[in-house]
Amino acid sequence: MRSKKQFAVIGLGRFGGSICHALMKEKMEVLAIDQDKEKVEEFASIVTKAVVADSTDEKALKKIGIQNFDHVIVAIGDNILASILTTIILDDLGVEKITVKAQNHYHEKVLNRIGADSVVHPERDIGVRVAHQVVSESVLEYLEVSDKYSIVEMVAGAKMVGKTIVELDFRATYGCNILAVKREEDVYVSPSPDLVMKEKDILIIIGADDDIGRLENHWMD
Ligand code: ATP
Predict the structure, then answer these.
(1) A GO BP term, please (predicted)?
(2) How far apart are CA 18 and CA 163, in angstroms?
């Protein structure tokens, strides 16, 4: 069961703001922090609690009780120094889980060294996803699992229609696995080998990037 966790989000720009909205939708407890009073007022009615504070001020964070939160997300964008300093303070205070938004590759490297448990780089990740979507018309979604492996969501090509999963033989030929098949409102997770592909089916496939590319060249139109 998923327990109700306490999150704190520092920085209420577009990224931090959308995290607040999404966490509230998931019925989590969210403390929103920003040094800008107007931002805090904007979020006061959206999150559990919103406070004005400069996160580079260790005393202020301690007073808020930041160390008691399960997970703190640092969503300060432009001010890289403030983001780094905030991360160090959170780590020093013993915050259990720290996720930080990186602005660039060097920022990411530093964050990984100084105690961030997870570093996200949304602009880069979205760029990669969009590139995959525009390169291939059949790819609807793309998720990088590692440097070499991905999960892609693609529409079944005309050649696949009428064939069973066994006949497609993605695993033996390309080393790729079909995790699920979406058919209108239904989702077949770990689909049966006998499932026959229909037009407009959407396949969720995991595999090495090169193998997914070969599979796509063969099966997609
Ligand atoms: P996004 O791209 O997500 O919109 P942004 O470009 O607005 O981000 P910034 O303006 O750098 O990113 O920062 C996001 C928020 O973080 C701002 O609302 C800013 O007031 C807040 N912020 C920056 N530094 C601090 C700090 N030291 N303490 C608290 N809040 C901060």
Answers:
(1) monoatomic ion transmembrane transport
(2) 42
Residue 8 has pLDDT above 60, yes or no: yes
Pocket test for ligand 1, best of 10, 31, 34, 89 (most atoms within 8 A of CB): 34
Helices (H), the chain: 14-25, 37-44, 58-64, 80-92, 105-113, 122-135, 165-168, 170-174, 209-219
Instruction: Quickly name the fold that domain 6-120 has.
Output: Rossmann fold (3.40.50)
User: Atom 22 of ligand 1 has which residue's CA nearest to it?
Assistant: 11
Between the CA of 183 and the centroid of ligand 1 the distance, in Å, is: 41
How do residues 109-133 score in pLDDT, each as one tens digit?
999 999 899 999 998 888 888 887 7
What is the CB < 6 Å shell around ligand 1? Answer: 10-16, 33-36, 39, 54-56, 76-79, 82
pLDDT score for 2: 62
Model confidence at 80: pLDDT above 90: yes
Which has the closest alpha carbon to 30: 67, 79, 70? 70
Domain range 125-219, CATH architecture:
2-Layer Sandwich (3.30)
